[in-house]
Amino acid sequence: MAITLAMAEQLSMTPTQQAVYEGLKTWRPEIASFYKDGLTIIDSNLESKSYLIGHLMREIDGGLRDMFSVVPTQDAESKSDKPKESHKESIIRAFGLPENSKLFRQYHGAIKKLF
């Protein structure tokens, strides 16, 4: 079965899924598209759907971290001296979550499986 535009248009979302989609669409339409496409793919019988969903989840994660993070501007010299921020550090910075919070542990636990 091929995924068609008609399938995406006929996608029936739960109230929670619709609320998430509408919220994402308000801030970052491309992230909302990744989310909606992921829901469409989940209902498909594509052999590679787990890989496609994983890729979409990584895109959503990166988009959310970019959206919520505030990175001070740096000149080229100070960038090269500073070690690259870890994924864990970027989640803490972007969402302002303490490392010992339940939400951080759940989010990081789910996302680290994708990388």
Overview of the structural elements:
The chain has 115 residues and is mostly helical. The protein is built from seven helices and no strands. Helix 2 packs antiparallel against helix 3 (29-42) and helix 4 crosses helix 6 (87-95). It is globular and about 50 Å long.
Summarize the structure.
This protein has 115 residues and is an all-alpha fold. The protein is 68% helix and 0% strand. The protein contains 7 helices and no strands.
For the structure shown, list the relevant keywords:
single chain; 115 residues; mainly alpha; 0% strand; globular
List the helices and strands and how they pair.
Layout lengths: L4 H5 L5 H13 L1 H14 L6 H20 L7 H6 L5 H9 L6 H11 L3
Helix pairs in contact: 2-3, 3-4, 4-6
Poorly predicted ranges (pLDDT <50, ≥5 residues)? none
Number of strands: 0
Average pLDDT reading: 81
What is the overall number of helices? 7
The end-to-end span amounts to 29 Å
- Strand fraction band? under 5%
Tally of discrete structural domains? 1
Largest sheet: none
| Quaternary structure state of the chains depicted | single chain
Task: Decide which structural class fits the backbone.
Answer: mainly alpha
Order of helices and strands: HHHHHHH
Bin the helical content.
55-70%
Q: Estimate the global geometry from the Cα principal axes.
A: globular
What's the Cα radius of gyration?
17 Å
